[in-house]
Amino acid sequence: MNVDANGTIGEFTIENCDVYSLRGIIRVKGGEGTLDKYTMDNCTVDSIRNYGILAIDKNSWMCNDIVVKNSTFKNMEYFLISRNNSNS
Questions:
Q1: For residues 31-60, b (16+ Cβ closer than 10 Å) or e, as one string?
Q2: Residues 54-71: tens digit of each pLDDT
Q3: Are the CB atoms for 40 and 63 separated by under 8 Å?
Q4: With contact defined as beta carbons under 8 Å apart, do 37 and 10 qualify?
Q5: What percentage of the chain has pLDDT greater than the value 70?
Q6: What is the 3-state secondary structure (H, E, C) of 13-49?
Q7: CB 43 within 8 A of CB 76
């Protein structure tokens, strides 16, 4: 997912997945808006490059809450990237 527009995303959830060999999972690179909640639960993540599992690469976007649980991560260039603080 490569967001380059204004908007609001209520919740983005990845559950029970094997994620591998990607440049990143979500990257926000333009516009302005809010991702209210990002959740990754019971996943195996391997070989993620430049943008990690979440990259908020724009000052005008905010991710309020980030939940990562019961997951395994291996061979990642970055984990989380954010230009703004999150609530939790």
A1: eebebebbebeebebeebeebbbbbbebee
A2: 999 999 999 999 999 999
A3: no
A4: yes
A5: 100
A6: EEECCEEEEECCCCEEEECCEEEEEEEEECCEEEEEC
A7: no
Residues 6+ apart with CB under 8 A from 85: none
Q: Band of the pLDDT at 84, cuts 50, 70, 90?
A: confident
H/E element, 74: strand 72-76
Q: What does the DSSP 8-state code read for residue 1? A: -
Is a pLDDT exceeding 90 seen at residue 85? no
pTM above 0.85, yes or no: yes
Residues 6+ apart with CB under 8 A from 67: 37, 38, 39, 40, 41, 88
Tokens 């209210």, residue located: 36
